[in-house]
C-alpha cells in the first residue's frame, strides 16, 4: 500500500513485531530425496509457528525477477524496489558508518585476481582475510591521486571495500567494471548517461592506478567496482509505519540498508546467538525488530546444500527464545531465494510465515516451499504487502473508510 | 478492470445476477473446535452452491487493510475503494432518502452517553430505540439555531442520525468528533484543511447547543459526529456495466450506498425473509440484484459467535427460494470480515463463492474460510475483479481484441 494511503490509518499500539529474515532462504529440491534445504531441515519450532500462523510465498520484485539483496529487503519492508533503488556503493557506505555526503559517488569494490592476460580468475581474490584487505585499502588510499577529487578507500569485510569519490560535477550513472563472471576482463569504466562522462574518466584513473599499485599483491592484484550510487533521501519506517525500528545484523551491508530506512542499527556479534541476545537486550526500546541471518544465503551461494540446511536448523533452535519475548507478530521469510543447486540468487518465490495472536491459521503445518503453496497468503503474493499485513496483525492500523 | 476498458465489451443479455452480500461474513476459528462461524454453521445449501461453483477469498482494499462498510461494498461492486471514497454522512443521507444538494455537508451522528466529566461511557447511548431517537432529533431540529446556516437533523435507525448543514462556504474537510472509544471525551471539531475553519466553528456551535439541549436526556445526553462529506458524482452501474440494478437492504446506509451507484433501492422489510420476498416480487424488473444481510456483521461486532453462526444458517435456508428464481449468476460474499473473536471489522480475506451456469467448478465442496483457500479464484484475489467475472458468467461481455 502506498505510504500516503497508510499514513491516516496508523495508530499507536503497545505491540511488537519481529521480522526474521533468513537471507536467500528459498531453495530447490536435491535429487536424493526431492527435498529443498528448508524441507530437508529438522526445524520443529518453525513448523509449529507455520501451523499456528498463515503461510505463503512472496515475490520480491516481479515474477521471474531475481532480486539483489537491496531490492529483496526493501520489498519485504514495504518499499517498492522499483521505486526505491539504491546502489551497492551507498549500502556499503552505510554499513561501515561512512559519512556519505550529498554529491559523493560511492561504489562497492572487490579485490580480485587477474592473470597475465588481465582475465579475471577469481572475483573475490580467494576471499582474502579482512586484515589483509585493510592493509590493501590503506595502500590504495595512500598512493592513489586524482586531480580535483578526494578519494576514500575503506575496507568493508573480507575482499569487499568501499570506494567514495568526492568532488564537483560527479555522477553515479556509470556501468559496473565487474564482469560478474570469471574468464572475462574487467570492464572499462563507461558512462550510462552523458552527465557521467567526466566521472567515467575519474574511475578509469582510479582503476588504472590501483592495478599498478596492486600488481605484486596476488591473489588480490586487481579491483572490480559495482553499484555506483549517491545517497538517497527516503521516508523512514517511523514516517511510513509509525514504528520505532531496530536492525540486528552481523553484516555491515544489511545495517547500512536498515539505516537508509531510518532503522536504528544495533551493535551485535557474529553469531545467531549473539543476534538473539541483542534482540533480548533491546526488547523494551523498540517495537519493530529486523533480525538478519546471513549464512543461509552464504551457504546457498557456496552451493552447499547440507550446510545451508544446518543454518536453518540452527535458527530453528532459537525460535523458543524469540517466542519467550512474547512478540505480537513474527514474520519469517527471506529477501530472495538462493538455491544451493544454483549457487546464486534466484527468482523463485520466497517462503513466508506470519504468526500473530490475531492471524487466521490455514492448513499449512510445515514451513517449506511446497507446503506454503497452499497457504492463505497465496503462492505468489507481492512482498511489498507484507509490512501492511504485519501492522494489521499488530493492531496498528485503523479501518479504511466508514 | 477499469470501466473504460470494460465499456466497449458490454453486450445485452437476458440474464440475471444476484450478489448476496453477507456483511462481515469472514471470521476466525474459536478455541473449542477450531472452526470459524462459517465453518461451524450447518449450511447444506451454501455448500452445494460452493461445490457446484468456484470459490476463493477476496481482498476488498489491500492486504492488511480493514475496510469500512463503504469501501468493502464498493470493491465488491467493482469500484476501486481507493479511487471512490465517500463519507458516512453522505451514505446516511442517501439511506434515508434525504435530498442532499451540491454544497451541503453531511455527517453521521450517534446519540451517546457522557458522564459528569464529559467522558464518553457509551458511544451508542445503550442503542436507544428508534422512536426515542426520532423524538430527540425533533428536539434538536427545533432548538438548534446557527446564523446563516440551515440545519437538518434526521433519525436514521436506533441511536444513529443524519446531520446536514446547508449554507455558503461550507467544507467537509473536518475531523470526526467521535473518539471511537469509550473513556475519552468527544473530540473538538477541527478542520483538516484551512478551507474548513469556518465549518469547524459551525460544527462547534451545533455540538455545544446539542449538549445543552440533551443534558437531561440520559442515556442520550450527547452527540458524536463522523464522516463529514459532500455528495459525490460517480458513474452508475448502468453506465459501467449496462445492468439495470436493484438493491434490497433492510438498513438505510446500504440503500444509500447502492443509490450512489445508481441502483434502484427497493422498499423491503426487516427480515431476511422479507428481503427474499422483495427479490421475488421485483425479479422481472431488473437484471442485477444486490441483497444485503446485515446481521452477520452485527452479531460479529457483538462478539457473539453462536448468533453469527445462526444468521448464516438462517440465510442458508433461503438459498432454495433464491435458486428457484433461476438466476444465471449467484455471488455470495461479504464486504469484509467481522470475526466474533475480535468483535470488529478485520483485514482477513473474505470468502467468495461464484456460481453460474458456465463457471468452471473447482474442488471446494464447503463454503468456509479454509476450504476456499484452495478454490480456483485464489486465496487473495482483488474484490474489484469480481464484478467483471460475474458479467462474464452472465454472458454480458464480448471478447477483448480480435
Overview of this protein structure:
The structure is a homodimer of 402-residue chains. The first copy, chain A, is α/β, with parallel strands linked by helices. The first copy, chain A, is built from 14 helices and 13 strands. Chain A has helices at residues 3-6, 37-40, 44-52, 69-76, 88-95, 130-143, 197-213, 237-241, 252-260, 272-281, 295-301, 305-323, 369-372, 386-393, and strands spanning 17-22, 54-59, 105-114, 120-122, 150-157, 160-166, 222-229, 245-249, 264-265, 288-293, 329-333, 350-356, 378-382. In chain A, strands 9-8-10-1-11-12-2-13 form an 8-stranded mixed sheet, with helices on both faces. In chain A, strands 3, 4, 5, 6 and 7 form a 5-stranded antiparallel sheet that branches. In chain A, a hairpin with a 5-residue loop joins strand 3 (105-114) and strand 4 (120-122). In chain A, helix 11 (295-301) packs antiparallel against helix 12. Chain A is globular, with a radius of gyration of 22 Å. Chain A starts with a helix and ends in a 9-residue tail after the last helix. The mean pLDDT of chain A is 96. The A-B interface holds A 1, 5, 9, 56, 358, 360-363, 374-378, 381, 385-386, 388-393, 397-402 and B 26, 28-29, 36, 57, 61-71, 81-82, 85-88, 91, 108, 180, 226-227, 339, 342, 345-349, 369-370, 373-374, 378-380.
Amino acid at each position: 500500500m502506498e505510504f500516503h494511503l497508510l499514513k491516516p490509518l496508523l495508530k499507536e499500539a503497545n505491540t511488537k513485531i519481529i521480522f526474521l529474515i533468513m537471507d536467500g532462504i528459498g531453495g530447490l529440491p536435491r535429487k536424493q530425496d526431492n527435498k529443498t534445504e528448508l524441507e530437508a531441515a529438522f526445524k520443529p519450532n518453525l513448523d509449529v509457528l507455520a501451523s499456528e500462523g498463515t503461510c505463503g510465498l512472496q515475490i520480491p520484485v516481479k515474477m521471474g525477477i531475481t532480486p539483489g539483496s537491496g531490492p529483496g529487503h526493501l520489498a519485504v519492508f514495504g518499499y517498492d524496489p522499483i521505486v526505491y533503488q539504491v546502489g551497492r556503493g551507498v549500502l556499503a557506505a552505510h554499513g561501515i558508518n561512512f559519512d556519505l555526503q550529498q554529491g559523493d559517488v560511492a561504489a562497492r569494490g572487490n579485490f580480485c585476481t587477474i592473470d597475465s592476460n588481465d582475465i579475471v580468475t577469481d572475483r573475490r581474490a580467494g576471499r582474502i582475510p579482512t586484515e589483509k584487505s585493510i592493509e590493501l585499502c590503506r595502500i590504495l588510499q595512500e598512493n592513489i591521486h586524482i586531480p580535483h577529487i578526494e578519494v576514500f578507500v575503506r575496507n568493508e569485510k573480507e575482499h569487499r571495500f568501499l570506494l567514495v569519490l568526492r568532488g564537483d560535477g560527479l555522477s553515479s550513472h556509470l556501468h559496473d567494471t565487474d564482469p560478474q563472471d570469471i574468464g572475462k576482463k574487467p570492464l572499462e569504466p563507461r558512462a550510462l548517461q552523458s552527465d557521467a562522462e567526466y566521472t567515467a574518466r575519474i574511475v578509469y584513473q582510479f582503476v588504472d592506478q590501483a592495478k599498478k599499485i596492486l600488481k605484486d599483491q596476488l591473489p588480490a592484484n586487481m579491483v572490480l567496482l559495482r553499484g555506483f550510487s549517491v545517497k538517497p533521501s527516503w521516508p523512514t519506517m517511523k514516517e511510513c509505519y509509525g514504528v520505532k525500528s531496530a536492525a540486528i545484523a552481523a553484516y555491515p551491508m544489511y545495517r547500512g540498508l536498515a539505516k537508509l530506512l531510518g532503522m536504528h542499527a544495533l551493535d551485535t556479534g557474529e553469531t545467531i546467538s549473539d543476534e538473539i541476545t541483542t534482540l533480548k537486550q533491546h526488547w523494551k526500546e523498540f517495537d519493530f525488530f529486523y533480525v538478519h541471518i546471513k549464512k543461509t544465503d552464504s551457504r546457498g551461494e557456496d552451493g552447499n546444500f547440507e550446510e545451508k540446511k544446518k543454518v536453518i536448523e540452527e535458527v530453528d533452535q532459537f525460535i523458543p527464545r524469540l517466542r519467550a519475548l512474547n512478540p505480537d507478530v513474527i514474520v519469517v521469510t527471506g529477501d530472495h531465494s538462493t538455491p544451493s543447486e544454483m549457487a546464486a540468487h534466484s527468482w523463485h518465490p520466497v517462503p513466508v510465515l506470519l504468526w500473530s495472536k490475531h492471524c487466521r491459521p490455514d492448513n499449512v503445518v510445515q514451513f517449506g516451499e511446497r507446503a506454503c503453496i497452499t497457504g492463505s497468503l497465496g503462492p505468489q503474493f507481492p512482498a511489498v504487502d507484507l509490512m501492511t499485513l504485519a501492522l494489521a496483525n499488530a493492531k496498528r492500523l485503523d479501518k479504511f473508510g466508514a
